[in-house]
Amino acid sequence: MRKRQAAHIEGPPQAPGQPRPNTCCLCWCGCCKCLWNEDRMERSERQTCTKMDSIEAADEQHPSLEELVSWARSFEMMMRSLEGREIFREFLRSEYSEENLLFWLACEELKKETNPAVVDEKARIIYEDYVSILSPKEVSLDSRVREGINQSLAEPSNLMYEEAQLQIYTLMHRDSYPRFLNSSVYRDLLDSRRRPCLET
Fold first, then answer.
1. What is the pTM of this model?
2. Exposure of 145 in the CB half-sphere (CA atoms within 13 A)
């Protein structure tokens, strides 16, 4: 996807102790380097570190053979499992479609929020990261769903991405999930759990 370049706009120098401005006209697409956008990037880096910690913790909690077999029976069951989501994410990364799961997870987190200010912030970050045509992680949504999101941005809610989330969930279920079950990522893990059972 082609990336559009936006002009770098710098404001007047900031006096010590002066409050930082909120946003500029270009921050909506995340393409400028204003102070508000820098804050958002710092928050994103902190969140990424936290996510990586959780992934490492999941690696230590190896799923049982019974769990692995249950994932083959039900996509929903796999998505409910932390280990299942992380292993599925590893597969999606190999197919360059990891953003689908990340978008779905971000929508799940947004649904839990009740604070209007936090809802507003998270809803806009999700838009910039996964819906904006300028984002390298843009997910595939049809025009009707995308238009609905654009209209909801005026007054964001914690459920504004519900239809888009379902569309991406269905895409992963029908398209990526069958390939995951036949992939070496899943098959090798399944074999490694079966081997001790066969030896006993």
1. 0.69
2. 16
Q: Tell me how far apart the alpha carbons of residues 83 and 57 are, in angstroms, rounded to a whole number.
A: 9
d(CA 63, CA 69): 10
Sequence-ordered alpha helix ranges (H) in the chain: 35-60, 65-73, 75-80, 82-94, 98-112, 116-126, 143-152, 162-171, 177-181, 184-199
**CB under 8 Å to 55, separation ≥6 — which residues?**
86
CB 163 within 8 A of CB 195: no
Q: Could you report the per-residue pLDDT of 134-171, keeping only the tens digit for each? A: 999 999 999 999 999 999 999 999 999 999 999 999 99
Q: Among residues 108, 185, 100, 95, which one has the least CA distance to residue 137?
A: 100
Listed in sequence order, the DSSP H helices in 61-130 are 65-73, 75-80, 82-94, 98-112, 116-126
Both structure tokens of 78:
């796999």
φ, ψ of residue 31 in degrees (nearest 5) = -105, 0
